[in-house]
Design goal:
286 residues; alpha/beta; 12 helices; binds NADP nicotinamide-adenine-dinucleotide phosphate
Amino acid sequence: MGEKLAVLGLGRMGSALAAALVERDNEVTVWNRTESKAGALVAAGASRARSPANAIADSEIAIVCVGNYEDSTQMLSDCGDLSGKTLVQLTTGTAAEAESLQAWVVDKQGLYLDGAILAYPSGIGREETLLVVAGSEKAWDRSARTIKQLGGASVFVGENLAGPIALESAMIGPSLMAIMGMIQGAYVLEQAGLDVRSYAEMLPASVPVLTESLRRQANAIANNNFADTEASLGTWAAALNHSDVFGEHGGIDLVGPIRQLLNRAVDSGYGDEEIAAAIKVLRQSA
Ligand code: NAP
């Protein structure tokens, strides 16, 4: 048998977390407000607790994954002493919410970790999946094995509870922008009478270029060195200023704020630098 674990919250994500831990032969106790959602997990070998407090009492490490912090605070309100327990909060929230829950857990003598899951439920349990966690180093030492069963690439980023949510936003942003760009691209193709299916087939070819570009731009920012560029910020700005593709479609100018940022960067004298130099405009306005 592996660890004595509890999973509180069996929605889409919580169910995937619990299933991955049951599959890996841990002793898993589950609790969910709507009891019926525990059925498949109990059939797979999990135990069902009568209350969140009972689930935590039966475990060494308790993983919480519900809709928001308010829900989790309400859910945990009956818990007593947490000596010897590690609470791992994987619900999405703010750094202030994480700090407040950490204070509550520490007050009850427990250890606390707060994490962001950078995956869909189908990614849970895979080697390449990343959970970013912060909080007590002792809690990480105790629960690293369990967390790495949920995502093999998971990392502990230290005590600063702002880390996971900031990293989650920083990781989601590029995906969201790419998906939005694809939607606009598909619309432009439809308007031009072209087949979006062949676009879907071609898109994966752009992924290696995008990956390399993201790494290159992030390193330029980390090194604060924007001198070496293959396509200057000015070239990108000109493309946005002069292309119909990046104009207004359906009454919405999807890249308007990006155009504004790049134009401001050109006006500030960064036109010959790497596109990542646009961060200097953001820094100026901070
Ligand atoms: P979900 O499917 O909507 O499940 C929400 C869960 O929260 C359910 O178990 C629900 O219980 C429970 N809940 C809500 N209010 C509650 C309350 N007052 N007391 C007790 N339990 C309560 O959401 P999800 O997709 O699993 O997401 C859960 C967390 O994971 C969120 O913070 C989300 O941001 C994060 N996350 C999700 C994904 C994803 O792809 N789904 C990816 C990364 C992170 P009932 O079953 O009784 O309603």
